[in-house]
Task: structure prediction
Amino acid sequence: MLIQLIINQINYKVDVEPNMRLLDLLRDKLGLIGTKEGCGEGECGACTVIMDGESINSCMVMAFQANGSNITTIEGLEENGELHPIQKAYMEEGSVQCGFCIPGMIMSTKALLDKHPNPTREEIREGVSGNLCRCTGYNKAINAAQKAIEILKEGGK
Ligand code: FES
Ligand code: FES
Result:
């Protein structure tokens, strides 16, 4: 079936199979491979993208269900060749180890900060609780989110 959607501010009209997941559409059909597949069962958060303002597991949404939606993936965060403040904060805080979980972590963080620009450390922890990381122990991801809040308050540079 033909669906229409916006991904990273670009309009797409794509033919999708009824059993195609949004994750497959992004990665296999559109080449947006920053979104990762970990468990494929809604447990790890590696496939997190923002759909109509909410962070979702793209392995748990069928492509046809995304018809008419507005989606942001990790590739959509940079602006004019500049990384998003959350991405910068992850680099500055040394919050990336193997990196596999990081796009999902960052998208969950973005969804949280879009709604709550000044969350507590506990609220940040809750906001990324659906994102599993086997490397970092989470504290550095929380530190990065707090750093991103500072950068955003200073005007996002
Ligand atoms: S790959 Fe989607 S939640 Fe793990
Ligand atoms: S940095 Fe390796 S899984 Fe999170």
User: Anything to note?
Assistant: The chain is about 35% helix and 15% strand. The pocket of FE2/S2 (inorganic) cluster (ligand 2) is lined by residues 96-102, 133-136 (CB under 6 Å). Residues 85 and 155 are 10 Å apart (CA to CA).
